Prior knowledge:
Number of helices: 16
CATH superfamily of the largest domain: Zn peptidases
Radius of gyration: 23 Å
CATH class of the largest domain: Alpha Beta
CATH topology of the largest domain: Aminopeptidase
Mean pLDDT: 92
Number of domains: 2
Number of strands: 16
CATH architecture of the largest domain: 3-Layer(aba) Sandwich
Strand content: 15-25%
Bound molecules: zinc ion
Largest sheet: 8 strands, mixed
Distance between the termini: 45 Å
Amino acid sequence: MPVSPSAMKRSLVSLAVATVAGIAGIAGISAMALQSAPSSPPPAENAGPAPSPPPSLTAEIRARAATLRDEALRGTRAYEIARSLVVEVGPRPAGSKADAAAVEWALRKMKELGFANVRAEKVTVPHWVRGQESGRILAPYPQPVVLAALGGSVGTTDEGIEAEVIEAASVEALDALDPARVRGKIVFLNVRMERTRDEKGYGDAVPARSAGPSHAARLGAVAVLIRSIGTDRDRVPHTGGTRYEEGVPRIPAAALSNPDADLLAAQVASGKPVTFRLKLGSRLLGEAESANVIGEVRGRERPEEIVLIACHLDSWDLGTGALDDAAGCGIVAEAARRIAPLRPRRTIRVVFFANEEFGLSGARAYAEAHAGELAKHVLAAESDFGAGRVWRLRSRVAPAALPFVGQLAELLRPLGVEQGDNNESSGGADLIPLQPAHVPVLAFGQDATHYFDWHHTANDTLDKIDPKELDQNVAAWAAVIYAAAETPGTFGPAPDYVPEP
Ligand SMILES: [Zn+2]
């Protein structure tokens, strides 16, 4: 739909802020983002439920949680839920027709799973489309390459952009270049992502995608090519949101598949001038309506106290959003469904967030719409890191609640889970807007060794999900979330995240 230029500008500003927060949150190294996030001491009226003794697992709750854990290992419906979203909706970028279909799907599915208060809460999202895209090395050795526009990239003209290529090994190396050498050129950011079990590899490499285009534009570049932020060697590019800085020209930006980045680097290494033609048909169409979809297991004794468990409903356009994030939705919905017959003390609220990928629109809308209720959010967690096994339980809870997290980790020990630190950066990108309210978080760290072979690519498809690994996730979530919803005592207020040096 058409929007006024000022409305568009406002939405782009918030999008830019949101995107860096989102990217950093996903990466789990959100130093930069979280320094800019509001960070004030918790005001008394906003410091969570009234003070009570720290939570502690009783033998009875522990036994029920252990049963939930062990029964889930025998098989769950998590894969079936994820499969349903992937098969019946497929790729569902924010603002698209499929995004609306995903909202309908989620409403149907949550009712079918037996949740209470199933509803859609309206969210306005930006609608960006990819269009046709192509790239070609023109000299010294002409050949086509495989690439994909970064999410949010502006397009080129129909003729495309033709320019000489200048390579930089990192954003810092780019910043150090003489602007006279960069002006009028296409910057090639050749940053190779390291394979790690946790978020570190992604976190270290992702600034090339999120910040690279504006850094290059500041030096006068006309376009940016990055090496895909991914660990595979497939001829498949990885998309993902980029963030244009205010006041800096918006230049087209695309990711080369890893083998094509190798090829371009080899031509640059020949010492001969390399020229490239980039054509991107991507553009921002304006705003569209989407929704957060919410369902609950109502608490039997303190229904106003909320344990929030989340995933995101949207996906990038290239794959089918199986790992990112149908898997997460399958995990949290199935965990809640299995807990429901036990009728825990507090309410478990399942939220499928709108538009995580392109600006955290749903998460921001939720924090705003539920501002008066955030003090009653006793705990929050999001599943958005693929479909690998859980191997670590991290947290950001009040120090007094830390022994309880230790008891939860102990409960998960038979699943191969260890306790991590109490300085989890976000608990999931969609939980970042809850940070000013000091909502405590738990993070079920999944094994991401292979996740970034497929993340944000055409290869994010159902075959990458192992149903048994999803069951292991459900076992961990069901046990922990039940224990948290049943055990009296507060987990907050959460301390501020302290960026690692
Ligand atoms: Zn995701």
